């Protein structure tokens, strides 16, 4: 049975080219021309645009907002505000930077600032402290209109909050209406199912662990705390990842290395994608009946080539979404690709 999803589709600017020549305005135009309804603005792309045009980041944000409006693209998020909670840097310094981000998000008229879970190994793990710092961030984001919501993203290499369960518990402790979670298929899959070290590309108990986690996510995540979804795939390491691999960086989490180089769009099996997107889509878009924003996030090393075009990436993204739309699902909540 063909299943059609009514979710609005967005794409991250990181998914539209990774070479310095791939400009933010080119990426916006490519997304609009290929039918995307929303976009995640990567702060680094905005900063490059500012520097090239000799503008402040705030002035650039105004230009980019206008460009997105002209192209009828909603800016869903400013991303990624990294390594905030539990950092050993003075809190006031971090809140000053956060205030700048919040101001830029308001200029952009973005709904969310995405905060990936802390992955600096030198971070503090005191949960009372972490909750307090995130409450102050959320309060700062709601202190003026429009309110900016904080979408906290569990990352598979996060130090203290690498899963949706731990991040949802954190969101409940923060207890702010404008603080929720963003789920990403890559992080859920590489935490539970996909292994860069196993020749099979899969943890021995991966299928069971993922199925159980997805079932819990359907029943346990309150819809008002699920702010938006990101979908991407991952390439199997063949041979398995090791210190001899050319991408290896000492001290870097293998999942982080994986994410930087080998995250094609969902179901791009022709480029090595092999993550269980069918099961994830079944759980989140069908069983949970999630109807909010879905954003495609890819970090594909091929996009670092100067000859690569943002238009090519946008077309790949839409083709990926068509593949997701065409997934067929068997009865009994079991999926097949």
From TrEMBL:
PANTHER family: DIOXYGENASE, PUTATIVE (AFU_ORTHOLOGUE AFUA_6G00240)-RELATED, HYDROXYPYRUVATE ISOMERASE. Pfam families: AP_endonuc_2. Residues 28-323 form the Xylose isomerase-like TIM barrel domain. It comes from the Eukaryota. This is Xylose isomerase-like TIM barrel domain-containing protein. The lineage of its organism: Eukaryota, Fungi, Dikarya, Ascomycota, Pezizomycotina. SUPFAM superfamilies: Xylose isomerase-like (SSF51658). It comes from Aspergillus glaucus CBS 516.65. InterPro entries: IolE/XylAMocC-like (IPR050312), Xyl_isomerase-like_sf (IPR036237), Xyl_isomerase-like_TIM-brl (IPR013022).
